[in-house]
Design brief:
The complex is a heterodimer of chains A (386) and B (304). With 386 residues, chain A is an alpha/beta fold. In chain A, helix 2 links the parallel strand 2 and strand 3 (50-53). Chain A is built from 13 helices and 16 strands. In chain A, 54% of the residues are buried. By secondary structure, chain B is α/β, with parallel strands linked by helices. Chain B has one domain: Thiamin diphosphate (ThDP)-binding fold, Pyr/PP domains (Rossmann fold), CATH 3.40.50.970. Chain B is built from twelve helices and eight strands. In chain B, helix 8 (190-201) links the parallel strand 5 and strand 6 (206-212). In chain B, helix 2 (30-42) crosses helix 8 (190-201) and helix 4 (79-92) runs parallel beside helix 6. The N and C termini of chain B lie far apart (45 Å). Classes of the chains: A alpha/beta (386), B alpha/beta (304). At the A-B interface, strand 3, helix 3, helix 5 and strand 9 of A face strand 1, strand 2, helix 4 and helix 6 of B. Strand 9 (203-204) of chain A pairs parallel with strand 2 of chain B.
Chain lengths: 386, 304
């Protein structure tokens, strides 16, 4: 079935295809239409789920945690301040090893109030133990929700998928919807190995003395390491079944390009057009689209970037006092690359608070990076007003 | 055995023990005894949620658990929503007839978890919410909470800065949410406590049981006096035993001969700095509250 859906509706229809059993959510702009759509799907009987209408995002995540612990598949969605309020519970979900799936609509942090897109909300949650996937299209949003359950339930870790405010959340596109029956063949019903069971009582989350806490953390790290291959395979299997796959990273027209632009989210779409134009003019440029932030696909990134002359990372985010967050990650991945094969990595800060990242901005970066000495390339702010 | 069978007629408390020995509560802990009585009534088809509170520790360190039923530990402010979500999860996965109990201290209930408690009550989540109220943050070492009574010493209300604010009235606040059932209880009256758990188990929606819970180290009281302190709290009307159905129908559970508030205060070192005038002030406030409570009961009777 094909429908014309917004990015937000696509997230809701993804949860519907995956047959989430409990939804626990709270409204925030620009996420709101995800939960409105879910409420409609439940009211119309298209999704047989309990929808807990909570009083805060903290409770939205606590609700997913409690329900998931009974063996129910759960879903929630949030944005920005809401995600920040959830922070404690994000750690809780991950350390409790509960495969919850959440959509985050990327929105800038206040003050001043901004409802427009940037990645600081989700990137601030990098170290909570959630897998993170950045989506480029509405179809990718829907497909990633379904894949997210497959991955999460394979490694017992929660998954956050991320979509840009308004550029995706409120923009319509034709979306292919596999439906519940076909999805079930890819994603069987959730069967946890352990859950709250009165016939087999266990205590979850009690005091863990110094002699065992590290082992819990280590097991989580092992699961994170496994999550990379699991994610690659989940995407391949999905492609085999439904004809659509995305990869955890994507190399766009990189062939033997000297200059690589690294992007994520909807900036990737604009960059594709810029690359096409510049290639036509004879420029040696290509794009690396980052879909996966955690676990970080370091080997794949290294393989893709080794031997290039220079890499310009477009960061729609800022770690104050450090620079763009993706650029830090990319530099880290290339540390062990022999110097002869290691490209210079430039960090470009763009599009904060929803400022447009236009083809002109991207082309300017692609040209700037070819001229700029690397010592001035740590953190370049593009389009700042005087 | 014949003699025991005869005795049984005098108590509603079940013989069975669900809670194990080996818990790590302090000697004389009111909350440990309350849990033992509660579990005897609730039985094994029960899931308990602990937020951060004394019972998060009492249950035992990993991999031990003294509760004998599934236990789910959650973040400090999330007892109510966690229990509500477990109840929703059980419904979504087709599991019926399981008691879902949030078991939280006064800080988790009346301070940090207050918003979430109110929300779960408003949604009428199908849970039994138990607040075992030892009237301060005892697990962190006796800091004042909004449940600490006027006049009490705590480590954050020391010396002349003893608590100057009155205790929040939890049952009144929750009754104002018009929840199906709210009740107070203490371990000094086990039959009454057990009856209230039975009532909660057979009632749909959100139930609150507020248990006054003596804490010997926190109240600076003797370990052997936990039952006595509980009884004096009821007899002095500092903590009357009553129920509220549907948020409006008030019913007194018992009306024992009246005792002076000072008898209750005298058992506890946390009040020892109070002058006789200050003790009279507390007596006066307790009597005012009692008149208000009786008035609500008369209104309930008049309205049928």
């Amino acid at each position: 079935m094909q429908k014309v859906l917004t990015g937000n509706q696509s997230a809701a229809w993804g949860a519907m295809c995956a047959q989430a059993q409990v939804v626990s959510a709270y409204p925030i702009t620009p996420q709101t239409t995800i939960i409105e759509e879910l409420a409609d799907l439940v009211a119309k009987g298209l999704l047989d789920a309990k929808f807990i209408k909570v009083e805060s995002e903290h409770s939205a995540m606590a609700g997913c945690i409690g329900a998931q612990a009974t063996g129910a598949r759960t879903f929630t969605a949030t944005s920005s301040q809401g995600l920040a309020l959830m922070h404690e519970e994000l750690h809780w979900a991950a350390l409790a090893r509960l495969p919850i799936v959440m959509a985050d609509v990327n929105r800038a942090m206040a003050p001043g109030w901004s409802i427009w897109t940037d990645q600081n909300d989700s990137l601030s949650q990098r170290d909570t133990g959630w897998l993170q996937f950045y989506c480029e299209s509405n179809q990718e949003v829907l497909d990633t929700v379904i894949q997210a359950y497959k991955i999460a339930e394979s490694v017992d870790l929660p998954v956050m998928l991320v979509l840009d405010a308004f550029f995706l959340s409120h923009t319509y596109e034709a979306v292919e919807i596999p439906g519940q029956e076909a999805t079930r063949k890819y994603l069987p019903p959730y069967k946890p190995s352990i859950y709250l069971d009165v016939k087999d009582p266990h205590a979850f989350g009690g005091i863990v003395p110094q002699d065992v806490y590290m082992e819990f953390r280590y097991k989580m790290q092992v699961a994170m390491n496994e999550a990379l291959d699991v994610s690659v395979k989940a995407d391949e299997d999905y492609k085999a079944m439904f004809g659509r796959g995305y990869g955890v990273i994507e190399q766009y027209r990189m062939d033997d390009a000297d200059t690589i632009l690294v992007t994520s989210g909807t900036v990737a779409s604009t960059t594709r057009a810029v690359i096409d134009d510049m290639k036509a003019k004879g420029q040696s440029v290509g794009m690396l689209k980052m879909k996966m932030l955690r676990p970080f696909p370091a080997d794949l990134v290294r393989e893709a970037l080794e031997g290039r002359k220079r890499v310009a990372v477009l960061d729609r985010n800022i770690c104050p006092g450090m620079g763009g967050i993706w650029s830090q990650e990319i530099r880290n991945a290339l540390y062990h690359t022999p110097e002869s094969k290691r490209p210079d990595v430039y960090g470009y800060i763009v599009g904060l608070g929803g400022r447009d990242v236009t083809p002109e901005v991207i082309e300017k970066i692609a040209l700037d990076v070819q001229e700029r000495p690397i010592k001035d390339g740590e953190q370049v702010w593009i389009g700042l007003k005087e | 055995m014949q003699q025991l069978a005869h005795l049984k007629k005098f108590t509603e408390v079940a013989d069975r023990e669900i809670m194990h020995s080996g818990h790590v509560a302090c000697p004389g802990c009111g909350a440990a005894l309350a849990m033992r009585l509660a579990l005897k009534t609730l039985g094994r088809d029960t899931i308990i949620v602990f937020p951060a509170c004394c019972w998060a520790v009492i249950d035992g360190p990993f991999p031990y658990s003294a509760s004998g039923v599934p236990v789910f530990q959650v973040a400090f402010e999330t007892a109510a929503i966690s229990a509500g979500a477990i109840s929703a999860g059980l419904e979504a996965t087709g599991k019926k007839g399981i008691n879902v109990v949030a078991w939280a201290g006064d800080g988790g209930t009346m301070d940090i978890g207050f918003g979430q408690l109110s929300a779960a009550a408003e949604r009428n989540d199908h849970i039994i919410y138990v607040c075992y109220d030892n009237e301060a943050y005892m697990n962190t070492g006796i800091q004042r909470s909004s449940a600490t009574p006027w006049g009490a010493w705590t480590t954050t209300t020391p010396g002349k800065d003893f608590k100057q604010e009155h205790k929040k009235n939890l049952v009144e606040i929750m009754a104002a949410h018009r929840i199906p059932y709210a009740a107070t209880a203490t371990v000094a009256y086990p039959d009454d406590l057990v009856r209230k758990f039975r009532k909660a188990m057979s009632t749909e929606g959100f139930k609150l049981i507020h248990i006054f819970s003596p804490c010997p180290p926190g109240h600076k009281a003797l370990e052997k006096d936990t039952i006595l302190e509980s009884r004096y709290a009821v007899e002095s009307r500092v903590f009357p035993l009553y129920e509220v159905e549907r948020g409006t129908d008030y019913k007194l559970s018992m009306d024992p001969p009246k005792r002076q508030v000072n008898d209750y205060l005298a058992l506890q070192g946390r009040f020892k700095h109070l002058t006789s005038e200050q003790r009279m002030f507390i007596q006066h406030k307790v009597e005012e509250e009692w008149i208000r409570l009786r008035h609500r009961m008369r209104v309930s009777e008049a309205m049928g």
